[in-house]
User: What shape does this take?
Amino acid sequence: MKISTCQMTPITNDKETNRLKMTDFIKDAAKEGSQLIVFPELVLTGYYCADNFFEVAETIPGYSTQYFEKIAAQENIYILWGMPEEGMDGVLYNAAALVGPEGFVGKWRKNFLPGHATDLEGDGAFPDRRFFKMGQELEVFQTAIGKIACLICYDIFFPELSRLLTLKGADILVGISGSPAFEKDIFEPIVKVRAMENTVPFIYTNLVGNEGKTTYWGGSCVYEAGDKIKKVPGSPMVSKSSYENEEQVTVELNLNKKEIRPFFPVLRDLDEKVYYQLLNAVKNR
Assistant: This one.
């Protein structure tokens, strides 16, 4: 199956311009035979909308999902992207939406909101906790190309989430982020580890370039479930984007998880006793 990552520099608060740029990338990917294209976190609006988040957020489904549904049908492709979602009036979520040739498929809400970087501006200014409510559910959506699940930025840091989605049957784990430059050496290893520890393909797409005083590091990548010959999970890395430029990259992705799992049977060896202990430890911390 062919899939595409597309790292972009969003124009803050300008959904129209961002939608049009995304549309161009989608059409390019479709011409290359891609069946799925993944855009970064909050690509529709940018990350630093401040109080304007309440103006630019949309319901999901809503106007932008309907717009991309038409593109998906025209180009016969699945499209996944990040955007601010309005739930009930005045309650916002950092969300991701998925549409395909058949229409709207589903959405995810960011479960964990970062609070480890609290600068007033620049790379350490994460606005999540000021504007967004935490998501509560982790869904896996069945599509014509397989079962797809998505983690949004800080969610990737929590191995329990990717493990849960894997156990729910995900064929593809997707991670999208708006990760600033100082996090490059943090994100690069954990993305690979999520593919390794779950023996599942992982597609990662990040924002790139400058938005206001923040610089994103790009570096979008794709890992397969594992290399049967070398008996190494989370390998090979079949795609790696630049650290500086907007670009769409289309690659062939092998979705066969069964090839590696007999040689790295981590899912077979799970013990539920550990999870009960984990639950109790979290409750009592």
Q: What stands out?
A: The chain has a mean pLDDT of 95. The CA atoms of residues 142 and 148 lie 7 Å apart. The first helix runs from residue 15 to 31. The chain is about 25% helix and 30% strand.
